Amino acid sequence: MSAYSHLFTPLRIGTMTAKNRLLMSAMSINFGVDAAGRVNDQLVEYFIARARGGVGMMLVGGGAVHPTGLELPDLPKLWDDGCIPSLQAMVAAVRPYDCRFGVQLMHGGRQSYHDQKVAPSPIPAPAVVKGVPRELTPEQIQELVAAFGDAARRCREAGFDFIEIHAAHGYLINQFLAPNANRRTDAYGGSFENRTRFLMELFRDIRGKCGEDFPVGLRINGEDYIDNGWGLEEACRLAVLLERAGAAYLHVSAGVYGSRQLTIPSMYAPHGCFVHLAEAVKRCVSIPVAAVGRIKTPELAEEVIREGKADLVALGRALLADPEFPAKARRGAAAEIRPCIGCCLGCIHAVLALEPGGCVVNPGVGREYLLKDEAAAPVPRKVLVVGAGPAGMAAARTAALRGHRVTVCDRRPHSGGLLRLAAIPPGRGELADILDFFEADLGRRQVDLRLGTPVTGELIAALAPERALLATGSLPELPVIKGFSQTRLNVATVVEVLDGEVAPGERVLILGGGQAGLVLADHLACAGRRVVVLNRRRHFAEELSSNDRFYLRERLKGDRVTLHKGVAVREFLPRGVRFAVDGVETTLEGFDTLVVAEGMQAVREARRLLETAGVPVELIGDAREPRSLMLAISEGEEAARSL
Ligand SMILES: Cc1cc2nc3c(=O)[nH]c(=O)nc-3n(C[C@H](O)[C@H](O)[C@H](O)COP(=O)(O)O)c2cc1C
Ligand code: SF4
Hints:
Layout: E1 11-13, E2 16-18, E3 22-24, H1 41-52, E4 57-64, H2 84-94, E5 100-106, E6 118-119, E7 134-135, H3 138-158, E8 162-167, H4 172-177, H5 192-195, H6 197-210, E9 216-223, H7 232-245, E10 249-254, H8 275-282, E11 289-291, H9 298-306, E12 312-315, H10 317-321, H11 325-330, H12 345-352, H13 368-371, E13 382-386, H14 390-401, E14 405-410, H15 418-422, H16 431-444, E15 448-451, H17 457-463, E16 467-470, E17 474-476, E18 490-493, H18 494-498, E19 507-511, H19 515-526, E20 530-534, H20 546-555, E21 561-564, E22 567-573, E23 576-581, E24 584-589, E25 593-596, E26 600-602, H21 607-612, E27 617-619, H22 629-641
Parallel strand pairs: 3-4, 3-12, 4-5, 5-8, 6-7, 8-9, 9-10, 10-11, 11-12, 13-14, 13-16, 14-15, 16-27, 18-25, 19-20, 19-25, 20-21
Antiparallel strand pairs: 1-2, 17-26, 22-23, 23-24
The protein binds flavin mononucleotide and iron/sulfur cluster.
């Protein structure tokens, strides 16, 4: 029996039964749909991988019911019958895996990425998407009501087991519900009854066109977390109405574009951050209720069900990071789950930049159709990976999976390279989860991991590798600025400070307003230091996802940290700095420490030794060129595939 007995108990939802309590929440992944809106092999294999991984229910995200409501370009277009055949083929391909498969129906309203936006009232979205939407006329509202019903009917004809209506996250239906987006004075605005009318009408239209035996769930917000938005009290009232109207389940989420709590929170938000909202709604109804929000371990998912806070647990990003999450949990191998680190970079940040969704820790997202027939390497080789950072460990893991005999050496006593240090500042600890995953996985695959082991000529001779991958990472670059060598400030790099080699004083200048500089500022401020950040770029922490940056910027709003951007540093002084912003000069003095957290330069130690020994060497990750974690991991995996 599974350690998670509540999680792996079947659940009746309307007329269907799900084999367990895990639901893959709808994610508009922005790939696998052709120009005509038909789904292709890329999307099909993405879903097969998740269904095979054991999830009980899953949803296709972002099914657009009407051209005016297409949120992102590459999402399923459900507004004509031409969409049915390709959906039918996808449903048939997923069928063998005993997973209840549904589609989320949505209309983006004012949060759509095109200029034909419509909404209950002509009020722009509070953030992210620009442009004033056109106010819907009563006739257009009726057209959209029917569009929801027709799209649902098409999903049923395609063979899906259920649908979910997207009434959350600030999209069209939520815009009708929320006073800040709905200023209508007709039957669709004003009172609670009027604001819920659009939803109740389209719900009835769907039931009329699909039949009462077709399960229709709804995603609603428990809280918009924005001024004059939709809140928990009204969500509970609506839940009762929806139950009476025949809803199969309710899925309680939160947030809109521009809200104080983000719908897709980064690593700074607590695990299970929206569970309390589902719990409150569950108290008002007896149909199944799903909880969501940074639930990334089977332990927490089990606890939510066991404690009766919800009947279903929705996993979004956890299933991007590891489609096998449910199967691994079920067979007692939770420690083998590849963890989502809450960076938001490969997934939602990419999608909102209109790129295909992916995952920083799992480069296989969106490439399942390319990787599904991956076989063992034709010739197993002896491979040496130099450097046990993310690129090196990702490469070693894939190489071992393909049957190579792999040794990884790192001169440091711990794995992870600089990412270990990046995980030290407050709220950043989850970055280390992926390192721990890799290290444990290398152990399971009999990779010979030698920490505290610099590569020497003798070692190369003893190991006699046939191929080498150089993943020795990068180190901070020192700037060329007047006064830098003469200042009496205690000068250190961000690496030396986080590594504990240099103890900063009470008043610290940080040169660099990227990710490293800002998380260090937070770290030092939390330790009671006063910090001034000088950012020579125009924007702060551009390499973070906007969701992650949002939380970090909020944390830095206290009075211990002062941020300057667009800075031209004129010179470092004995105890301070003189700089200009837009031509206006400022001199700051009275500091004791200067920390450099700006550019990085590649470290390529051991390259010569390997080349001299005649071992073919490939550079990966920061050793090739300092870049992102996402590229480090994907490049590591790709290099291992070509060995
Ligand atoms: C790339 C991406 C796309 C998303 N698209 C949708 C969507 O189309 N509909 C929706 O209701 N939620 C969408 N979400 C939100 C997720 O369903 C989920 O509520 C959110 O990621 C929080 O859950 P998690 O912490 O388990 O990821 C999306 C999330 C991501 C990461
Ligand atoms: S990109 Fe980051 S937040 Fe998104 S699923 Fe992957 S690890 Fe999680």
